[in-house]
Structures
1.
Amino acid sequence: MDISVVICTYNRAASLCRTLTSLIQQDAGPDLVWEIVVVDNNSNDSTAATVAEFASSTPVPITYVWEKQQGLSFARNAGIDKSRGRILAFTDDDVTPASDWLRRIVASMKQYNADGVGGKILPKWPCTPPAWLTADKSDVLLQRLALLDSDTVCVAKPNIPVKIFGANMAYKRDMFQQIGNFDITLGRVAARLYSHEEKNLIERALSLHKVIVYDPQVLVWHHIAAERLRKSYFRRLSMADGEKRAARNEPSGKWHFCGVPIRMFPHALRDFWRWIWSVLRLSARSFRRETKLWFYFGFVKFRMQDYFGRKRTGSRSAFFGSNIKFRRK
């Protein structure tokens, strides 16, 4: 088996149907042997029936995998274990790959002698996107929707990371055998919008001198749901980032207040005034600056909850302290 396409899904039977339809229409060529592996991460909709219908009516082998443990990293790891391909290509259940997607992955890996390849992710908007989302030329907010539109090939190095998102990425199986699978303490879990599992994987690969490439010719389209075009969605994303950062076993520094590093407060105050100034100037950056404040809020919220939870059990005795260790959540 040359390639296994791994799709992790959770209660999105309708959009999964669109993704499977685009995949079975791939112009893979006569020599490429490939399969589809759908990992159902504890869905309660018609996902299983949808996969069974496709599996019975297409020449492309389709394997259905049930993963009860909630979490995107658990689901991806189950897909790795149940697949047979030498290359594992990952995409999402709301994505439409280009018709030559698989051929481009193989060609890019050969051209750059790469262990991993990611590519361009363009949007399929449900309506005209709001101005606050597209006006910021830094593309930071667009990247929060897993969109990438660079036309430049980038070969990552340990000190030069590359942006590759889970909607469009592929890795050789032997790379996972050497560096391990996705970190199960990272990644989305149902409605909790955690992330960074893809970045963590790339960092571990680069530490072992693996070759990771961004190639814009490897192309997919991401269907953006209407609810993701609301500011509330980005606020939740940013707060979840703060919570996940706070949950890591990182020391708080020499001094902390209720588990929050003292050094964080001047940074938060600085970003608060930058946000106020951008709002007064009607800057396109104002909402992006606001999302940084939601990151701080998520971080502080988690650390204080953790602190007072431990204080109730007698493991902490003061508001101020040093070198406190925090549990993973």
Note: Residues 315-329 have pLDDT under 50 and may be disordered.
2.
Amino acid sequence: MAVPIFFVDAFSGAPFTGNPAAVCLLDRPRPEEWLRNVAREMNLSETAFLLPEGDGFSLRWFTPAVEVDLCGHATVASAHILWERGLLPLDNEARFFTKSGLLTARERKGWIELNFPAEPAKPVDSSLNLEEILGVPAFLVGRNRINYLVEVADEAAVRGLKPDMSLLSGLECRGVIVTSRSSTKEFDFVSRFFAPRAGIPEDPVTGSAHCCLGPYWGKRLGKTAMTAYQASARGGIVKVELMGERVLLTGKAVTILAGEIVS
């Protein structure tokens, strides 16, 4: 039986910007090898697999190389498809059962609001040669359970980064978030995210990274609500609101392609 699959650009309201994700709608559990093969075939930073479960959906995310514990843009894409295809009423909360616990999404006047766990970073020893790997001085180095966080001097440094991917892939983590204050009043901070170890040299817009960036910049700027820009080649906007041990991440999404997997 054919399996519906969709390509969605997340954290953007315009086609061919933001972060593309594939959303696969399952009607029954599939072997993990099949899930991995589909993700490799899609060759996007993440493919999301949705399966009805109780009052919500089981949700798993795979890169072309590994399964990940937390992913923002493919969750935005998943909620968008559920509402757009009429699988869930627009005024209903989308509930996802994941490796990071229960995650929810709500539609907010054309925006999609995710309720995710906060993932603050703690300062760590800077002897990891991250300055050598990134090619720029590091103002601060931190780490949470998933990624390293590096603050650099300014937005120009973020945008001009050309990391050594070979060295970066040797780090024992999913990836490295590099950030600075924004050079414009439109955004509070900017970032980029590199994860070659997970099969993603650079992720265009990374929701889960903002679970770390939000608490970090909230403390630095004295704010609980911020607007961020991920300065990849595609680029994307993420609104961040701090809610204690949770973070609300808000973005838009647009469907690019609809099809079926027939194998």
Note: The mean pLDDT is 95.
3.
Amino acid sequence: MAMLLAEKTFPAGDTLINYAEGPESEGPAILMLHGMTGDWLGFRDLMSRLAGDWRSYACDLRGHGKSGRARDGYRLLDYARDIRQFMANVSGPTVLLGHSLGALTALICAAEEPVLTRGLVLIDPPVYVRNTPVGIHPGVEDWFGWVYETMKDNPTLDEVVEACRLREPDADEGELQTMAVRVSRVDPAAVGAALGDRMGEGADMDAALRKLRCPTLVLRGEWKYGACVRDEDADWIHAAAPAALIVQIRGGTHGFLWEKPDETFALIKEFLQPLA
């Protein structure tokens, strides 16, 4: 039986944030944040695994999913401002769990909201962008570039489906429709900000790591398989936040949360147990 999830909205300054809320629970809150071009639906399995012990939330970040678009606000600080308001007004004290862009957003929030952050799980955070162009990662540049080119001229859903079919010729129609809907809900300006290396403007990730006071788990894959944390990035995280637990998923791509769900969930569950 599928878990019952309720979708709701929350006004955050200049935009409306769509989010999902899991079944009521007497357990603590956990808030999940997706990566660039994703949406909250990617966390359905994780929310199901945590049901009963945790009160789970998952947001569509601005410019993604069913959340509103912003005129000129796709920096990490803009994403974090939305989520900080969500923490203050909806979730209350919570564990933050983020993947990719969501991980960077969660990091900024945890540093600025120590009272509201009970723990932090960073899943393959692309911290290399702190001092390196996003384009040094060939998979990221390829995917972001394709999404931007696909969406920049406001295509119809049928046109997006056809673009997806050309990119993924072996996918079945159901997979193509799912992919097309997700891509069609991405504001190309959000992807453009990342491609133009404007996303990190004003954000100091080194300072954020040094300000952390909550238990922190960093899960990383392997760069050679498409993950976004290099060995030198892991060393930098350890130097700035020596109390953080850093674990590498062997053979992990940037999507190991979905490709290796049992292994990944076991690590998350072990980390969360004392926080519950």
Note: The chain has one domain: 6-132+202-275.
